[in-house]
């Protein structure tokens, strides 16, 4: 476990932490309501579990062809992601209900997805929420294969393919976790983390083996034995289900933490980050599509990441109500409340006009990546493919109302596309840092 500490660089930072907690607590006290989940949470749990389990049951009842079964798998993937974001997530944080046993029961929905509650708690609750966007401490931004999420991680030649491979690897997120849980659990047991958290290492490993064996027996074995589907069709359906879920979950995470405005600070040589923890959480997270009620409902309020990170023990059904309080308090203390107004904006098409991670700013007016349709000299192969992608998908994008005349093509790319920009896309090699919020 990383020994990183947070020290406020100014008294006002501690005042912000105190004020935002007091203001949000006052909201619940004045209305006489619990910050935990209510009937809305129970209804959502039923809907999401039904979206996942009912299609699975139908496989044994209706004579699905192989192609129709893939449609069933796709729907199950949407339900799987919904359970993870809207049911399991709140429950493992202890916010789904005021009753501990209800949280434990709803948190156990993780096992229906092939996951492990203990490894999730360590990686998400302890590491990600404590050291958000801190390279090497927050495993959620750790580099994986050809994907690089931290601006402080080593930049390798393979990362220039990231804009092509990113979404494919997002799709592998949940299926790989089914297996990787064993490796993570073995590492936590070896390093003594399991015992530090009051768990017996052998019991944890045996439990993981038994539960995951049951998971595969039910969701893979039963369809092979009791449906007309061939074994390879069942495996393909299982992979598709997890690919859909992983793609959704991976994309939602990137919109919350790996976008313009979400900082990635590093501790000093003594392991100290010189800002209060609450201020750190505001600066390393981003909200998106705050007015999209359907998205809010489906993703379990994860488009309100600032509120979630400041108040992980508050159920997401309350985020829409406390968000104006958090925003107003942040602004009063000089903090930037990082919010992308739409899902598309969060995905990268309306980022602020700044470059990041060593990219150069693209000049005003004409599209410099293609020079008004004439590709820059020396732009070949994968560089040319990226140039074409930028031109067709980004440079032609007309910002809100068409009032913005300066088009900065690279800055508008989703941040996971920005790890390696070919020379033909640049005006110069000069690094243009992104804007940093004023420190209180």
In short:
The protein has helices spanning 11-31, 39-61, 66-92, 100-107, 109-112, 117-128, 162-170, 173-190, 193-196, 201-226, 231-257, 277-283, 293-298, 305-310, 319-332, 343-349, 381-395; strands spanning 5-6, 272-273, 287-288, 339-340. With 440 residues, it is an all-alpha fold. The strands form two sheets. A two-stranded parallel sheet has the order 1-2.
Give a verbal description of the structure:
By secondary structure, the chain is mainly α. Helix content is 53%, strand content 2%. It has helices at 11-31, 39-61, 66-92, 100-107, 109-112, 117-128, 162-170, 173-190, 193-196, 201-226, 231-257, 277-283, 293-298, 305-310, 319-332, 343-349, 381-395; strands spanning 5-6, 272-273, 287-288, 339-340. The protein has a two-stranded parallel sheet. Strands 3-4 form a two-stranded parallel sheet. Helix 10 crosses helix 11 (231-257). It is globular, with a radius of gyration of 23 Å.
The secondary-structure element order is EHHHHHHHHHHHEHEHHHEHH
The overall strand count is 4
Rg, nearest Å: 23 Å
Spatial strand arrangement across the major sheet: 1-2
Biggest pleated sheet: 2 strands, parallel
Q: Helical region count?
A: 17
Helix content: 40-55%
Question: Helix and strand layout, with pairings?
Answer:
Blueprint: E1 5-6, H1 11-31, H2 39-61, H3 66-92, H4 100-107, H5 109-112, H6 117-128, H7 162-170, H8 173-190, H9 193-196, H10 201-226, H11 231-257, E2 272-273, H12 277-283, E3 287-288, H13 293-298, H14 305-310, H15 319-332, E4 339-340, H16 343-349, H17 381-395
Parallel strand pairs: 1-2, 3-4
